[in-house]
């Protein structure tokens, strides 16, 4: 999120108006009958404490009226915040899918490389097990026979 967008979000508008009026959270909380933590969360654009958008809009409306802000302006800023959050979530999901795809491609490349190495080793490295044992025996027996012949003479 850019700073431009953050400055148009409701939290920024509320904070600036509260500071201009030099009001404290404690006083506002007792006058509005809204818990102080909720007021702080509204100014931080942290809506995780609230039950849902309906409650948030009600609190934003009441808080903005108390600070002499146009409630519709603050609610439009909240709608913009929600829209930006949805865009960010979609972007994050797309990036996550791309990362998963890259991981799968990388894994497939590694597996393919290992398979190619195995094929290469199987085809080009001589295997002693394929040598015919009969040929060795025949060669040895000829040598032995020659040696026997020389011994007899």
Notes on the protein architecture:
With 153 residues, this protein is mostly helical. 79% of the residues lie in helices and 0% in strands. It has helices spanning 3-7, 10-21, 25-32, 36-43, 53-66, 71-124, 133-152. The longest helix is centred in the middle third of the chain and has 54 residues, at 71-124. The radius of gyration is 40 Å and the shape is rod-shaped. The mean pLDDT is 83.
Helix and strand topology:
Elements: H1 3-7, H2 10-21, H3 25-32, H4 36-43, H5 53-66, H6 71-124, H7 133-152
Instruction: Give helix and strand order, one letter per element, not per position.
Output: HHHHHHH
Give the overall shape, derived from the CA principal axes: rod-shaped
- β-sheet strand percentage: under 5%
Number of helical stretches of at least 4 residues: 7
State the low-pLDDT regions, or none.
none
Brief synopsis:
This protein is an all-alpha fold and 153 residues long. The protein contains seven helices and no strands.
Question: Which terms summarize this structure?
Answer:
rod-shaped, about 150 residues, about 80% helix, mainly alpha
